[in-house]
Request: fold
Amino acid sequence: MLQNDLLVRAARGETTERPPVWLMRQAGRILPEYRAIRNSLSGFKELVETPELASEVTIQPVDILDVDAAIIFSDILVIPEAMGLPYEMIEKKGPSFPRVVRSAAEIDKLGSSGLELNYVYDAIRLTKKKLDGRVPLIGFAGAPWTIMCYMTEGGGSKTFSWPRRMLYSDPGLAEKLLDKITISTIEYLKNQIKAGADVIQLFDSWAGVLSPEQYGDFGLKYIRRILEEVDEVPVTVFAKGAAGSSKDLMELPCRTIGLDWQMNIHEFRAHDPSKTLQGNLDPCVLYADEDTIIQHTRKMMGEFGKSNYIVNLGHGVYPDTDPVKVKLFVDTVKGS
Ligand code: 1CP
Reply:
């Protein structure tokens, strides 16, 4: 039983006393308490793969920032790794894949079921135990298109030319890879739910590099397949940069759609007022002075309205944000 179940109720479309609030990328990044643990280790992967430590940093923002939900400390890149493409997390640079997949033979070698991700499920079980019902726990995965971006490009990129090139040069090959990622992701999310995840979020961080038409064919099609299979708990789809696909997003068979700060709140609401929306404060607002933060947070909340709403930023909180400002944002939501 959850003592604070605001997030789960809002995600189900039920009436809540106030909208729940959490922040994308709230675990890690901004808290000195996170960095203290992180700096004592060999690297990011040790933290992700050690359930005791992962659960500790998952709970830090609940204790320190008083958010209404925890999100399991992990990364979307654990899926490519479990499929057969290990990643390295390079200090101050980000992820890098020594091997990528760009041919049918390479894709054939990838695994797609029975993947070894027990460390994530153990971290979820342990976190649930330690949280003891204080707040819900969010499980997550990358959406297939975003995962394909990393598996073909080999790391972060401004343009993601490799995956986009494949959509023109060999769409069948892209579909083959997206299929495998989709199968892996369904199993992964179902196992996260069995381990105790109360809500699931799909991050499609690179949705915005595609045209709306391509996003329908190579992004939303696979998200839809996941949603048709993973229906045990409410699912949120966050497709960063996909403002041009508002209607298609709102027609997905999921409870909640996450908005980035460039998306028009009223346009999304108008498509289907019964769906829950999550978002969408520009993360840069949190660099401003206190009055500006309070003013922008209240204005945003007014636009979303009181029901079917989960307060969040429009993308992950930026690493150099002052935790005091983040706390002010959380307190403003709770007090207004
Ligand atoms: O050493 C470190 O501390 C590395 C920084 C870091 C952290 C804390 C990375 C590297 N990943 C994470 C954890 C993480 N990643 C979480 C859980 C904890 C939390 O921060 O709340 C989550 C939900 C993610 C999800 C993730 N990873 C996304 C989707 C969300 C988004 O921000 O769009 C993406 C795109 C990644 C890949 C990734 N991992 C790390 C980096 C620097 C990146 C982005 C690389 C790029 O620019 O393409």
